Amino acid sequence: MLSLVIPAYNEGRRIYDNLLTISKATEEFCDDFELIPVNDGSSDNTEEEIFRAAEADRRIHPVSYSKNRGKGGAIKEGVSHAQHELIGFIDADLDLSPNHFRDFIKTMNDTGCDIVIGSKMHKESKLEYPVARKIFSYCYYIMLKVLFGLKIKDTQTGVKLYRSEIIKEIVPKLVTGGFAFDIEILALAAERKAKIEERPIVLEYTRESSFGRIKVKDIWKMFTDTVKIWWNLKIRHTY
Questions:
Q1: Which of these, 185, 161, 170, lies nearest to 87 by C-alpha position?
Q2: Calpha distance 182→164 (Å, rounded)
Q3: For a pLDDT cut of 70, what percent of the chain falls above it?
Q4: Do the Cβ atoms of 22 and 90 come closer than 8 Å?
Q5: 3-state secondary structure string, the chain?
Q6: How far is CA 201 from the centre of its chain?
Q7: Structure confidence by residue, pLDDT tens digits, 72-130
């Protein structure tokens, strides 16, 4: 029923415990699932810890490669290995609980939608994260609204659920491997008239700094990749 893709970069300190936590939480609402942690070319012991977790839980199916491809690249690789009819994404740091998927699956069943995304801007969301991140998220939302005109408020929250046929069709067409991959997926889904629902989240920020490991160059690349995605879509529509 459910495949959860979990991109991981230099998460060796906590990935073993977090994978087992995700598995235990998921089995409470889903009988048939797999976890696909993707070691995105980590320089620490993330790969070893993922495989150690797989030995402890047969539902964990590791994917690993040596060269860092970015979060979008890890998601793309993970989706290619997913076997079930629903495919979810969740971050390895567990700022967002896997319990969100209980609600997401119900929403998908109740509405018949193709995609369910967590939204920090949903009125029922409960957030504990830095002001700087809130400002960044709002500015990025305005940018996306201007460029893409999407009827959704938050594309970047790291917990999402897709019907397999939608995401497997879209992922091979992605041109960005960085943090802007989310907007590219959703823009391509909107092109295909996919029905997207936003749901509230509970976010408990665990990183030491406001942006975690995201650096200024990553933020700049995210903005430039976003413009590139918009331009590619515009050119395609023109011709």
A1: 161
A2: 16
A3: 89
A4: yes
A5: CEEEEEEECCCCCCHHHHHHHHHHHHCCCCCCEEEEEEEECCCCCHHHHHHHHHHHCCCECCEEECCCCCHHHHHHHHHHHCCCCEEEEECCCCCECCCHHHHHHHHHHHHCCCEEEEECCCCCCEEECCHHHHHHHHHHHHHHHHHHCCCCCCCCCCEEEEEHHHHHHHHHHCCCCCCCHHHHHHHHHHHCCCCEEEEECEEECCCCCCCCCCCHHHHHHHHHHHHHHHHHHHHHHHC
A6: 14
A7: 999 999 999 999 999 999 999 999 999 999 999 999 999 999 999 999 888 899 887 66
Q: What is the CA radius of gyration of the chain?
A: 17
Six token digits for residue 148: 């893409």
Please state the pTM of the whole predicted model. Answer: 0.84
Q: Tokens 């070893």, residue?
A: 48
